[in-house]
From TrEMBL:
InterPro entries reported for this sequence: Uracil-DNA_glycosylase-like_sf
Gene3D superfamilies xref list: Uracil-DNA glycosylase-like domain
Higher taxonomy: Archaea, Methanobacteriati, Methanobacteriota, Stenosarchaea group, Halobacteria
Name used for this protein in its record: Uracil DNA glycosylase superfamily protein
Source organism of the structure: Natrinema hispanicum
């Protein structure tokens, strides 16, 4: 891996393991040492309770496709106990997963997108990351009403609203040919970070309006070399406004959502072959 790329990933990791956060992580309400839904007093906490930021998985060099999620869900980390792994004591290289096809198995809410990961991995070097890299703050754990801390954390991590964030530098570092985002919220944040060709007013219709069986829609991004492809969110399923535009043949052994992601991967592979 080129030294510049190595520096980026290790710098982000160092920012995260630092108490209180450093760099773009400084003071983030979702940081392991600040958030209030983890056990113990944040002032004296030294354990991340199995939590770690989700970025830097899959291929790090010669990246063809970067897949972009919104944020890791609660299912992606173990139960919060003192015995669980304290990832602040680990290095980036010890924690990252180089097999991107295993990401849907451990990320909890994106299992239905597994066909996308598996098919693309056979054809491309695939990178996986999240717009907001730390887990959602769960207000039920701390008995208070939502107060916007999750939205603040996602903007701070992405680099929206005056924050420097990670996303722009991260994508420039891995330099993919295609960026695929999963769901409406990652699309909204992506469009606040980058100058993206309009998808139209209706997200669900827009992502299915391309000239492919999966509706795959490619968008240009001003000043960037990569092509952007927004897609549906696997947990919520593919909206009827998307599927009614598609010409996907269903399979008995797959849900409609799994078949959608499989068809999407097939279409991107064909698109790349035609345009390379």
């Amino acid at each position: 891996m080129a030294e510049g790329k190595c520096d980026f990933f290790h710098r982000v990791w160092q920012n995260w393991i630092t108490e209180g956060g450093a760099g773009p992580c400084d003071g983030c309400p979702a940081h392991w040492s600040i958030r209030e839904d983890f056990p113990g007093d944040p002032e004296t906490r030294t354990n991340s309770f199995g939590h770690r930021p989700f970025f830097g998985d899959g291929a790090l060099t010669d990246v063809d496709v970067a897949i972009l999620g919104h944020e890791p869900g609660k299912a992606s980390i173990p139960e919060y106990t003192e015995e669980k792994t304290n990832h602040t004591q680990n290095t980036f290289d010890e924690v990252r997963r180089d097999d991107v096809t295993k990401i849907p198995n451990i990320a909890g809410t994106i299992r239905l997108a597994k066909p996308l990961f598996e098919l693309l991995d056979k054809e491309f070097n695939v990178y996986w990351t999240q717009v907001k890299k730390c887990n959602e703050i769960h207000y039920g754990e701390i008995g208070i009403e939502p107060d916007g801390r999750n939205r603040t954390a996602e903007k701070q991590c992405a680099g929206v609203g005056g924050y420097s964030g990670h996303l722009c530098e991260e994508l420039h570092t891995v330099d993919p040919k295609y960026v695929i985002s999963l769901g409406k919220r990652p699309y909204e944040l992506f469009c606040e970070v980058f100058d993206v060709e309009s998808l139209g007013e209706n997200f669900s219709r827009g992502i299915g309006s391309g000239n492919h069986k999966s509706g795959l829609r490619t968008l240009s991004v001003s000043g960037e070399s990569f092509i952007y492809i927004p897609t549906a969110h696997p947990t919520r399923g593919v909206h009827k406004q998307t599927t009614e535009q598609l010409s996907i043949t269903e399979k008995s052994n797959q849900s409609k959502t799994e078949r959608y992601y499989e068809a999407l991967a097939e279409d991107l592979i064909k698109f790349n072959q035609i345009n390379t």
